[in-house]
Specification:
This protein is α/β, with parallel strands linked by helices. It contains 19 helices and 21 strands. The strands form 4 sheets. A 9-stranded mixed β-sheet has the order 11-10-12-13-21-20-19-16-17, sandwiched between helices. Strands 5-2-6-1-7-8-9 form a 7-stranded parallel β-sheet, sandwiched between helices. The longest helix is centred in the first third of the chain and has 20 residues. It binds glutamine. The site of glutamine has 10 residues, from strand 17. Glutamine binds next to strand 17.
């Protein structure tokens, strides 16, 4: 077993032997434990949800400081240039990192305030490594997958451990075992366990038990082969989580156990549940926390926890919610619902506080016109126009917003939805018939929405938008102020366009109130129409800061307004 001293020595002579491994200053082996979560059989089985729930349990019930990190195998530097309709939503952290939607689950379930240190892509590893090579950091040496790429990865995890002073670094490896994309990452995890010692690293494999309709019974072979694949890479899983549609039968667990050398008590069944908030309690009932603490030789830091009780209370509120509201979301390629996951989560966790459940209806706007809008929006208690890019369906969205405004149906515009509400108002109330955004029509003369001045010179498209957390000054006496209950809030942004400052006066003169602004720049950040019960647009994404135990006040206000509309 390598001791603290061994690992330190290894880091010194990086160019002369095969033990290149970077150890950040202040790192102590054994101070931080690692939980490595990998998937087999197929992707999309809920590794992220499991990781977030496990992190929640270890934090809220046991008092550990858990720092989650996601590894994504693709060669993009970050998620900012990925298409959300292919890959799912791009989540934005306060520091402006554009990342995988799993970080949204971590922030909602484990802790706020994650940073770029919690997200690593293949692209970032290689870029950083090649930058170092160009700087001459490896002079005389052939730079190799092993030890340099794997060393870079271990270094990144250890840096996170030191920076966040974590008791546990929880690593979710994106993709599936057997993918070329994550093979070097998995190798790095094997090395990490070798260097840190067995009692400091716990491997969890999340697998899937298939149940073909034609057979009507559960089959474990695919899972067995997946786990065997992992073992052939030199990794012995400590715990296996079997995801499935129906509860796992005992016989299946036994088969998996004998095949994988994992005791049957550590083969856990996790079938579909009512909500993600039910999973931490379920994991506790199945003893997952105890097993992990045993494997890592950790003792709980708490004896009962109010915070954990609040999570359990939330599940009860979800189960007992009596009212329902139906919200229409105008989404592009609406069949990929993960593209809007934070919005769905914000609605889902806000509604129970008002004793309600939210049903979502997707509204395809590319065919919406003045003539059919009332029919298309029939029965809806509220409308959301979410964030987006480009012109597709824009006119239909504007019709929806107009309909909502004229019929006092609660409207919530998020980023692009804020900009569309400005265009709608300019066209139909301020008499600017040709009003538009230069994103949609670059030659537009009445450009009420235009590019941010700070964005004009930018040419590269990756990571260059106005990103991350910014302060919003909320005007006293407005609906927004009433909802937030304070005059200064911090919200997260991801945009290039904004309200044209030359149009603000006209819009205001005609009754639009800009109730939230940037503190030092003339960037409008919240709009509202005081005569409507809820016609609010925000240039930011309140869904990125909404948390199950602390829903974003604007989401709560929107739910209340929908209930109010339904009552009358
Ligand atoms: N496309 C708009 C902009 O860049 C809105 C962005 C968004 O909705 N996130 O400003």
């Amino acid at each position: 077993m390598p001791t603290k001293k061994t690992v330190r020595t290894l880091s010194k002579k990086t160019t002369e032997h095969e033990f290149y491994t970077s150890i950040p200053k202040g790192y102590r082996v054994g101070r931080t434990k690692y939980i490595i979560i990998m998937g087999s059989v197929m992707s999309g089985v809920g590794k992220g949800t499991f990781s977030a729930s496990l992190g929640n349990l270890l934090t809220t019930l046991h008092g550990f400081k858990v720092s989650p990190i996601k590894f994504d195998g693709y060669l993009n530097y970050d998620a900012g240039t990925l298409n959300p309709y292919r890959h799912g939503e791009v989540f934005v952290l306060d520091d402006g990192t554009e990342c995988d939607l799993d970080l949204g689950s971590y922030e909602r379930m484990i802790k706020k305030g994650l940073t770029k240190s919690s997200y690593l892509t293949g692209g970032k590893i290689f870029k950083d490594l090649i930058d170092k090579e160009r700087a001459g950091k490896f002079l005389g040496r052939d730079v190799q997958f092993i030890p340099h790429v794997t060393g870079e990865i271990k270094g990144f995890l250890r840096k996170l451990a030191v920076e966040s002073d974590a008791d546990i670094v929880m690593v979710e490896v994106g993709g599936t075992i057997g993918d070329i994309e994550n093979a070097y990452f998995i190798e790095a995890m094997r090395e990490l366990a070798y260097e840190e010692g067995k009692e400091n690293v716990c491997f969890v494999n999340v697998t899937y038990i298939i149940e073909p309709k034609s057979l009507g019974e559960q089959k474990s072979k695919a899972a067995q082969l997946g786990i065997r694949n992992l073992m052939s890479l030199g990794i012995q899983p400590n715990l296996i989580v079997c995801r499935s549609h129906n509860p796992i039968r005992e016989k299946i667990k036994e088969k998996i156990s004998i095949y994988s050398n994992v005791p049957v008590e550590r083969v856990i069944g996790l079938s579909n549940m009512e909500s993600i908030y039910h999973i931490p309690l379920n994991l506790m009932q199945k003893g997952v926390d105890k097993s992990i603490m045993e494997i890592l030789n950790l003792k709980s830091r708490k004896n009962g926890s109010k915070e954990f009780d609040s999570w359990v209370k939330l599940t009860k509120m979800i189960e007992s919610a009596k009212k329902t509201v139906e919200v229409g979301i105008t989404g592009k390629y609406t069949e990929v619902h993960d593209s809007y996951i934070s919005i769905l989560k914000a609605l889902e966790h806000s509604a129970p506080y008002e004793d309600a459940k939210v049903n979502v209806r997707w509204v395809e706007t590319s065919k919406i016109t003045v003539k059919n809008v009332s029919e298309k929006l029939k029965g809806l208690d509220g409308i959301i126009v979410p964030g987006g890019f480009g012109s597709r369906g824009a006119e239909g969205k504007i019709e929806c917003i107009r309909y909502a405004r004229e019929h006092d149906i609660p409207y919530f515009g998020l980023c692009l939805g804020f900009q569309m509400a400005v265009i709608e108002y300019a066209r139909h109330i301020c008499g600017m018939k040709k009003a538009n955004s230069t994103e949609i029509d670059s030659n537009c003369k009445q450009d009420v929405i235009c590019i941010l001045p700070e964005q004009e010179e930018i040419e590269e498209l990756g990571g260059t938008m106005r990103l991350g957390g910014h302060d919003v000054v909320v005007k006293k006496g407005t609906q927004a102020y009433k909802l937030y209950g304070k005059g200064l809030v911090r919200e997260r942004f991801r945009h290039r366009f904004n309200v044209n400052t030359t149009c603000i006066e006209t819009l205001e003169k005609h009754g639009m109130v800009f109730s939230g602004m940037a503190p030092k720049k003339r960037i409008m950040q919240i709009l509202e129409l005081p005569k409507n019960r809820f016609h609010i647009g925000v240039q930011f994404h309140p869904e990125f800061t909404s948390r199950p135990l602390e829903p974003n006040p604007l989401y709560l206000g929107f739910i209340r307004a929908m209930l109010d509309k339904k009552r009358r």
